[in-house]
Structure formats: C-alpha cells, structure tokens
Amino acid sequence: MAATSTENGTAAAMAKISEKIPPVAHPLAKEPTEIASNINYHAQYSPHFSPFKFEPEQAFYATAESVRDRLIKQWNETYCHYHQVNPKQTYYLSMEYLQGRALTNAVGNLDVQDAYADALKQLGHNLEDIVEQEKDAALGNGGLGRLASCFLDSMATLNLPAWGYGLRYKYGLFKQRISKAGQEESADDWLEKFSPWEVVRHDVVFPIRFFGKVEVHPSGSRKWVGGEVIQALAYDVPIPGYKTKNTNSLRLWDAKASAEDFNLFQFNDGQYESAASLHARAQQICAVLYPGDATEEGKLLRLKQQFFLCSASLQDIIGRFKERSAKKDQILWSEFPSKVAVQMNDTHPTLAIPELMRLLMDDEGLGWDEAWDITSRSVAYTNHTVLPEALEKWSQAVMWKLLPRHMEIIGEIDKRFIKLIESTRPDLEGKIADLRILDNNPKKAVVRMANLCVVSAHTVNGVAQLHSDILKSELFADYVSIWPAKFQNKTNGITPRRWLSFCNPELSRIITKWLKTDQWVANLDLLTNLREFADNSELQGEWESAKLASKKRLANYVLQVTGVSIDPNSLFDIQIKRIHEYKRQLLNILYAVYRYKKLKEMSPEDRKNTTARTIMIGGKAFATYTNAKRIVKLVNDVGAVVNSDPEVNSFLKVCFLYIFNSICKF
User: Quick check: 396 and 351 in contact, CB under 8 A?
Assistant: First the structure.
C-alpha cells in the first residue's frame, strides 16, 4: 500500500512537471526550456526505468541521452567529413582508457553547462547532483589509461582525425574496498545497468581466431586455419572536442559467440556448460582488465585480450582504408602508410605488428617486402618504463599455442633483423643475443615485446624528456646507434578542460578575469601572461580564496567517504597512482611515520610552530600483488594510529583515498 502511495505521488509530480515542461524532442536544443523538454522527452519516451520516476538516477540517464542527441549529429558529420576528405588518420591502440565521468566533460566541451544547469533546475534537479549519479567507465587504472584519454580529448579539440581503440571491460579492474584486513576487491558494476554514451554498431563485427594451425599451400602461401573463432562487436563512445564540431570516436570491442556456436543438441541433453562453452570463453575476454596471469590459463587470457584488440582494430582500419580508396577494385596498398598511423600505447598492442603483416600477406596477397614496408611505416610505439624487468615478455610456448602464424612472422622478423646487424653493424654482433626479439633460453624461451616494437616501428617515444633521454642513453642505446632518427620525446600533458576548467570553476574564472580571455582553456601557453600579475595582492587573494574553496570541498568529500576529518587549512600532500613498489608510496608512508615520531618528540609549543600536513595516498594494488597490498594496509594502519592520537592529529593526518577515480573533480 505504501509503495502504491509513493508511486502515485511520483506520478503526480511528473505530471505536474510535464504540464509546465512538455516532453518534446529537441535534439539540438540550446535554450534551457527546450533542453528541459528534451530531457523530459527522454525520461518518458526513452524509458529505462518504471514509469513516472524522475529521481536523480533517472534524471542522469535522461540528461545524458539529451546531451548524446547533440553529440550524435556532430559525430555523424565528423565521420562523413573525414570519409570525404580521406586524410591520414591516427588510430590509438590502448588496453586502458581512464576516461572519468563523461557528462561534465561533454556539456563543458559543448559549452552548454549553464544551459543544462538551468534546464535541470526547471525539472527540480541540480546539475552537480545529477553528475554524481554517473559511474566512472571502468576501462583503465593508471597513468597509461589517463594519458590515452587525454590524447583523445586533445586530438578532438585540435580537429585531428583520430580514433581510439580499446576493450569494453564489463567489470573493469575491480572495485576497491578497505577493511581492517586491507584492500578487498569486488567486480566493478559500471555496466550493471548500461552506459548512456555508447552506441553498439551491430554492423561492425569481425572474426577473431585463436589456436589452430598454419596450412602451407602449393604456391607457398600460408593460411591460419582451425582453432576457435569468436566475434568482435564494436561499441562506439563519442569524444567531443572543446568548442568545436569535431567529435571523434573511442571504439571499444566486446567479444561474443554466434548462435551457430550454441550446441542445441547438447543443451537439450542436459550438457548445459558444454553447449555454450564458446560463449563462456568469449565472455571471459572482455570481463576484466588485467586478469591474473599466475596460471597458464591466465596468461592465455591476457594474450587473448591483447590479440583480440589488435586484430579487431586492424581489420576495422583496413576496411576503412579500402572503403575510402578511390579505386575500390584496385587497392593501392602503397598509400596505406600515408592514410593510416597506428600508435601503440605501451607494448600491450605489440601484436598489431605481426597481425598487420598476416592480414596483408595472407588475406590481401602481398609479399613479405611490401607488407613489411607498409607495416614499418604505419606503426609507432610509446614506451612507458625504463625498467628492463618491467618490459613485457611472452612465453614462446604460449604464443605458439595461441597464435602459431604470428610466431612464424615474428621469427622471420627476428631472423631478418639479425641479418641486418651482421651485414651492417658487425660491431654489435656480440650484443645480438640481447638485441634480438626472440630469447631462446632453453629454460624460459620468450618473445621480447619491446624489442619487437623498436625493431618494427618507425618512431619510438618516451613520455617525458628525462624518460626519453634514458631510453636513448641506456635502455635502447644500441638501437639508437642503428636508427638514431627513430627515437623522440613526447612529454605527457593533461587536458586543461577536465583538469582545470571543469573541475575548478572558481580558479578558472579568476584566470579568465585576469587574462581577459578564456582562450587559455585550449592554449595553456597563455597562462604565462599571468606572470605580470604575480605580485598583485588582489590576484593573490582571489587565488588563495579559490584554492581554499576547493580544499574545503575535498575535505568534505573525504569526511563523507572515509570518515576522517581533515583541516582544509593544512598543507595537502597527495599521491594518487597505481600502488607499486617502484612508485614510492612506501617511501611516502615511511616519511609520514618519521614525521609522526618527530612530532611526538616535540613539546606542545614546538608543535604549534610546524605546518599542519594532511598526507593522502590513493590507488589500487593489483589483486595478486602481495607487497603492493601490504603497502595499502600499512598506509591505513599508520593512518589509524596517527589520526587517533590527540597530541598529533591537529598537525598530521594520514588518509587512504580508495575513491581516487573521482578526485579529479576537486
């Protein structure tokens, strides 16, 4: 009876709203009243929930679909434009994308945030509350994924023809919880309902083969056959540029098996698992980001993920190249590198190299030399680590089992590289064992993925000047002596939209006021013009006020989610990144222990002369990485001691932020 009463009350409230704001489709609305009507239209005619509900969750989905209306028009126009112009297009392959919430970014880049705030107010909601309903897309974990997302945003803003390719992980890495035992993991539920931003492309499906064998034909051509074949289905996410009509795509692949792969006879015979075994294996591929690889099954699954991304993306890229070719009956493959740039974000997409070779030779009929020329002029590699032990290596046995044709191709690349060294650089012959791609150590034969990238790519870059210098002088020094022009630097940046303009509106308004322009949002070089006001007391006061306002918001949020009260006037010392022994969280927490002990040794009067400090550490430790999980527990245990000590807790607090993906809004 109570439920019926609530539903009637909600229905009456919705009816009252609809009287004032009729549910009318206005997909390109700019005025708040028309936007409100479009939101109401989606609430009623694009229903995902029970009728008449318009609580914050329902309001979020209706608002997102209203924003998506506008994006889809720009999206389609962008695709048509590039299809007609046929420029060289960048294809960014990455196993991770740490996108963050899309609604704030979309309305900000479309420059309609004020209009949407007014529209939602008319519907009885607050934009900030609605934004809070969105779940982070669980497609990434750390800096590698955030870099990928920043690149997509920047390339869209710069009107560059660029697409991202990734996997549509259903459960992400994991959802992190902190208990007395330390970090606990559970499946991320970001797709438990649905994502309003993605558009499934039922017409974009590609076959992906695993296992099998290589057949050699009388002509000498080779063909990979047998094994198991699953389908890669495309889901597209729009990436709008800032104040531009350019809207690029992030294409995410999901894995599925077809109806033909369901054995109805076995199912009716009670063999339910066997009947749908390929469907179950397909679902595993995009279930989790970085599944545990301590077992051979785990290694196979990770390798499947990497190949699945590479093969689906390259089949799509080749299909688009053919579609845009002037003479569809006579494809000029020599033009491929002038139309396609494949950027591999770290070594996870390395299999793009042998897969592109395979597709060109086995499917398109090209010879080795032509296929190699095309491949080596089309792929580039971004390195993310200078630690030799962190460079990705795959067991040759696992590779032969899963990808026999690709191991043949990798072996041929390796053989030709060795011949190149022997014929042109005899001084390096003593180093061939380290430089070659295949490490044939009988105890553990592996494929060195970074070596394959360096040998095959036309360009190799680090992500900071110091990093790139170390690559050239140490890690890849001998390769540099062979191909000095191949190595360059691309310093990691950020998108000033998400990381300043949208997440810190108070500071953004101050910057715009003093620069007398908001053009800095797309051109950070303009910030140097603030130097002339560096000693201006009025600017300094406004700056400090904006900073304190943001610190208060963060302090309130930390209290809400962790229960720890922190002083917004204290110095905030924040380290948020993946938990790892080499990323220095352990050093940071040992410093906190040292500071705590020094404060305990001080007299009350001496403590008053110190700067109060709040140390915040956040990040996820990989589920099977024992030492990283110990660091998480140590941070929490130190925090429990420090924060409960009345002598010290006014001068030092230690918090673990397990909600770190959402911190960017502060």
Answer: no
- Report yes or no: 389 and 443 within 8 Å, Cβ to Cβ: no
From CA 263, how far away is CA 273, in angstroms rounded?
A: 10
pTM of the predicted structure, to 2 decimals: 0.93
166, amino acid identity: G
Label each residue of 403-422 as H, E or C.
CHHHHHHHHHHHHHHHHHHH
Residue for token digits 């093969």? 311
Report the phi/psi class of residue 100: left, alpha or beta, with left for phi > 0 and alpha for psi in -120 to 50.
left
What token pair was written down for 535?
């000693």
Per-residue 3-state assignment (H helix, E strand, C coil) for 220-259:
CCEEEECCEEEEEEEEEEEEECCCCCCEEEEEEEEEECCH
Looking only at the bridges linking them, the beta strands covering 182-186 and 438-439 are unpaired
DSSP secondary structure letter of residue 500: I
Query: What would the two tokens of residue 621 be?
Result: 């430790």
| Residues 6 or more apart whose Cβ sits within 8 Å of residue 597 | none
Give the tens place of pLDDT for each residue, 234-275.
Answer: 999 999 999 999 999 999 999 999 999 999 999 999 999 999
Question: 164-193 pLDDT, tens per residue?
Answer: 999 999 999 999 999 989 999 999 999 999
Q: In angstroms, what CA-CA distances link 404 with 334, 354, 397, 441?
A: 27, 11, 10, 19
Mapping DSSP to helix (H, G, I), strand (E, B) and coil, where does residue 289 land?
Answer: coil
Burial call 210-249: b when 16+ CB within 10 Å, e when fewer: bebeeeeeeeeebebeeeebbbbbbbbbbbbbbbbebbbb
Q: Are 148 and 164 in contact (CB under 8 A)?
A: yes
Whether the CB-CB separation of 221 and 366 falls below 8 Å is answered with no
Separation of alpha carbons 260 and 205, rounded Å: 15
Alpha carbon of 395 to those of 95, 552, 621: distances in Å? 20, 51, 25
Of residues 465, 486, 485, 656, the one with CA closest to residue 576: 656
Cα distance between residue 45 and residue 211, in whole Å: 46
Backbone angles phi, psi at 296, to 5 degrees: -65, -35
CB within 8 Å of 67: residues ≥ 6 apart: 103, 106, 107, 110, 112, 116
User: SS3 of 603, please?
Assistant: coil
Tokens 């006879």 found at: 265
| DSSP state for residue 351 in the 8-state scheme | T
